[in-house]
Write a structure and sequence with these properties.
Elements (H helix, E strand, L loop, with lengths): L7 H5 L3 E11 L8 E6 L6 E6 L14 E5 L5 E3 L2 E3 L2 E2 L1 E3 L5 E3 L14
Antiparallel strand pairs: 1-2, 1-4, 2-3, 4-7, 5-6, 8-9
Length: 114
Amino acid sequence: MTDNTISYEDFLTVDVRVGTIAKAELFHEARRPAYKLWVDFGEEIGVRKSSAQITKRYRVEELPGQQVMGVVNFPAKQIGPFMSECLILGFADEKGDIVLAGPKAHVPNGARML
């Protein structure tokens, strides 16, 4: 157990939603290899942009259509010439490469993690 226990109410302040990657491009201007992602989080939230350092495990052409989880209530962040509007979630594998987090079965875009 960790020392930084939070309440359920604290947890609910983080808005984690499921979205489908609609478009992915190489982020040539990034300092570290990355992709630009456009993720469709459904009608309520819409399409949000994000930068993701996932080039070691994923090819840009295989990303569209993949469902991912993202935090949609962080403020936008300028990353070079690109404005990132959400944080796509993932976990580091044994090599430190990021594995995207997403549902095991298809769920509607915009579904909130409970």
